[in-house]
Amino acid sequence: MTDSSIIDIAMQTMIVALKLSAPILVTALVIGFTISLFQAMTQIQEFTLAFVPKVIGIGIALIVSGNWMLHTMIDFTIDLFARIPSLLG
Fold first, then answer.
1. Could you count the other beta carbons within 10 Å of the beta carbon of residue 35?
2. Which residue in 50, 64, 73, 78 has a CA-CA distance of 20 to 30 Å to 88?
3. What pLDDT is attached to residue 48?
4. Can you tell me the distance from the alpha carbon of 86 to that of 51, in angstroms, rounded to the nearest whole number?
């Protein structure tokens, strides 16, 4: 196991983690910004107003992108397990 193979695995892991977290984080960001803009325009300062839409939006994002996320993680895991013999030998 060389330094370059460890760095390659670490880079692939970070890229997969970024890909998997992007739909959820972008959804929360867009909904949070929209609700904050609405609160600033109407002077409503209710904390639950931002929480409920975020939970619903993140749930919808997980339903829509969950299958893709699962297949991405499975492909990464299969590729990682296939590399084990070359990393040991």
1. 19
2. 73
3. 80
4. 47
